[in-house]
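Q: Give me the 3D complex with uridine-5'-diphosphate.
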Amino acid sequence: MGGRDATMVLLDENGVRCDGRKIDETRRIMIRAGGLKNADGSAYIEFGDNKILVGVFGPRDVHPKHMSNTDTGILRVRYHMEPFSVGERKNPAPSRREIEISKVIKEALEPAVMLEKFPRTAVDVFIEVLQADGGTRCAALTAASVALADAGIPMRDMVAAVASGKVADTIILDVNNEEDQAGQADMPIGYMPSLNKITLLQLDGVLTPDEYKKCVDVGVKGCKIVYELQKKALKDKYFGNGGD
Ligand code: UDP
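A: Here is the predicted complex, encoded as structure tokens.
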């Protein structure tokens, strides 16, 4: 954030963004449920130029045992970026950013998963970012919800996610990497449409109270678009021609 590339035109006089989108338009989104034979559930997502694979394992025994909970199941999430997923090679060692994003995604998924139905066990969610282009936490959270549903994990709802933000003093939907770097604000949102509940809300940047409200509204609207695609991915696998 903070105008690192001041020369870039993020929004032209016709309201067209640096990648040709309108202010309220998402990037191209493709979600596929299934695909990994050895996982209990899986999903693959392309969200613009983000490409992310998620594998879900469990409910299964917890090791080490002392981490298990007799009253409820536990959710464990690992968000991992491949060294080749970004322009400048990423060190393969887990970064502070990956640890933070793993925690944020875990906390965003917990209200959706009926952990109380499988005490003493764990559900593991492995997220592999193959290609990153801004908004990976939202794309990963979206795909993780589909992978959990694909694994047959009892859920209250799926969490759909997308970031809204601010560039050139305008609120936009689905912030890409350039907009994240050179724009004024980035607000990742995770939302359960059937329950009308936000489970992830972060903000990098500065907004007025009115802009803040607008960003939440725009983000929630975007999540509803994403949610339809999550449901379609599951329908395609279980009732259509898709899936494995
Ligand atoms: N990024 C990068 N190298 C890194 C980490 C991130 O190039 O080591 C890029 C990547 O494209 C990512 C973007 O910066 O999607 C924005 O990262 P941020 O931490 O805001 O998380 P995200 O928007 O992906 O959820």
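A quick observation: The longest strand covers residues 50-61.
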